Amino acid sequence: MDAPTKTRPTIDDIRAAAERIKGSVIRTPMMMSRTLSEIADAEVWLKFENLQFTAAYKERGALNKLLQLNESERARGVVAASAGNHAQAVAYHGRRLGIPVTIVMPVSTPMIKVTQTEGHGAHVVLRGERFDDAYTHARELEAKDGYVFVHPFDDVAVMAGAGTVALEMLEDAPELDTLVIPIGGGGLISGVATAAKAIKPGIKVVGVEAELYPSMKNVVEGGHGAIGGDTLAEGIAVKEPGQLTRAIIADLVDRIDLVGEKDIEHSVAMLVAIEKSVVEGAGAAGLAAILAQPERFRGRKIGTTLCGGNIDTHLLANVLVRELVRCGRIARLRIAAQDRPGALAAITAKFYESGVNIIETNHHRIFTRLPAKDTVIEVECEARDAQAIDTLVKHLEGAGFHVERAELD
């Protein structure tokens, strides 16, 4: 079947893609996590696609597409629309193959992503406020300048390249009975489900979307979930899923789960703490689904793809600190006290007795509902565990202080 009319990859396409890209992308590790398996009461295997050179699985599909261009198409060059991992994948492998690359990004794209993409040799055009605007302009450049458009997900060659992930997962862990795969536009799960169901027809494939962006679930399952908002999993925050991918997902994916922001944050933090691995929000969505609803996965042999590791370091720091707050190791206490000499010393003595470290203190004398002779002392503190802070609060209240604890959620 000719490429323009072909609407879905086959297992043969995926095996051919694996041979085509072999040696040019990393065959990433696939390892069972003993600790996460104990937590989930299941056998949890992780595919570390965040260890690709551009830190995401996107290289597989982009390279498979580029390698199938003829000499005329290579000479004309390619264009893509992306604000993230697809941009870097196309740029990196385009430069390796000597193919001119133009990437259209929204104006709002963080400068670090722009410079990284330019660093791989691509010509970056900033256009529009949203991805849809950048996508429209990229298609205009395709028509005007004769570029070949490299779609981030709705392309048979791109899906086939992504499907090579499943070949490796099942080679390394053939006993898997469930795959849990993040969904954005649907390219990764389309390729993975195609390969997995061909190799092992009884295997279950579960898709995962961010709760704020249930676009594929809406289309495939007839839902009406609201779409939009700031998500940590921006890599799968797609408003309009693929046309080709939605048909494949409807046929081959057993169900689509949604995960909330708190669960995505928790899984990113767990991967740093347990696996010593940095994974972006979209890449941690599969694990988030497993940890958020363990009863749906209990006793199963699960493989999930850590499909990307490109997270802003400042954002990662925030996620890790928020995790410490959620597990009770960091707290912010508002302590009401009389504004007199010795009050602060009495409070800090209780911190010392409880073994809790003070990170920061603030006095509030004016903007408070307390009487003029009183004050609010706000203390940010850190302890070895949640119990130490609970003990501190009891000591403070036992000494006559009124204590309020700031909540994160």
UniProtKB/TrEMBL annotation:
The keyword Lyase applies. It is an enzyme of class 4 (lyase). GO terms for biological process: isoleucine biosynthetic process; L-serine catabolic process; L-threonine catabolic process. Its EC number is 4.3.1.19. Its cofactor is pyridoxal 5'-phosphate. Keywords: Lyase, Pyridoxal phosphate. Residues 332-409 form the ACT domain. Pfam families: ACT, PALP. It comes from the Bacteria. One of its GO terms (molecular function) is threonine deaminase activity. It catalyses: L-serine = pyruvate + NH4(+). PANTHER family: L-THREONINE DEHYDRATASE CATABOLIC TDCB (PTHR48078:SF6), THREONINE DEHYDRATASE, MITOCHONDRIAL-RELATED (PTHR48078). Belongs to the serine/threonine dehydratase family. This is Threonine ammonia-lyase. It comes from Sphingomonas cremea.
